[in-house]
Amino acid sequence: MDREVVIKTDKLTKQFGDFIATNAISFEVFKGEIFGFLGANGAGKTTAMKMLCGLSKPSSGTARIAGFDVYKDTESIKKNIGYMSQKFSLYEDLTVKENIEFFGGIYGLRGKLLKQKRDELLNTLGLHSEQNELVSALPLGWKQKLAFSVAILHNPKIVFLDEPTGGVDPVTRRQFWDLIYAASDQGITVFVTTHYMDEAEYCNRISMMVDGEIRALDTPQNLKKQFIAQNMDEVFYTLARTAQRKGD
């Protein structure tokens, strides 16, 4: 893993009225790293990701994504990242080929290069014979694999994955992570939010979010030692209980 910093935040905060959704988070992510944002629903993971993607302006603090400022360079950020969400990644009423071409165009691919990237992707995923099928006809696991592959079609510096494997069976989820490892090996930084404890252990490092704050950040192995826990379920439970006591 390269030590080049591609994501850097300092006290990044997002506030909605009196509610602080993300509270002064500071961290760095390196080139080619698989960085996990772990936390329960409502912990602030998606809010943080939207700021990092240039989709939501921070209330305070600073952040640079692929060398660009989240306040001034949002369009440049969008050109250098990929994004995949559990809720929306592909158009179900378009064919496999049409989805690839549509999103490739959004990412700036044109002409022969887009055709080349499209054909390479179809061959890699083994979907060449299904290219004219509607995406709605694909099994969920294949939709997720296609969505991830489309998100990195333009070889971005960073790909953001927001709860990408929700509702996917364990075998397909493990196959999906093989794609993540392959992207990391190519130098693409993977920033993934999840509430699955076993998935967190696939990451190089984990940031654990509780009530909008980062309560721990380290490798899965070091976090286990730090909290004297047998698995990530116990680590997360410890942090959640700490947050609850703090609020009492």
From TrEMBL:
Keywords for the protein's UniProt record, in alphabetical order: ATP-binding, Nucleotide-binding
Limits of the ABC transporter domain: 7-236
InterPro entries: AAA+_ATPase, ABC_transporter-like_ATP-bd, P-loop_NTPase
Keyword Hydrolase listed: no
PROSITE patterns for the chain: ABC_TRANSPORTER_2 (PS50893)
Listed name of the protein: ABC transporter domain-containing protein
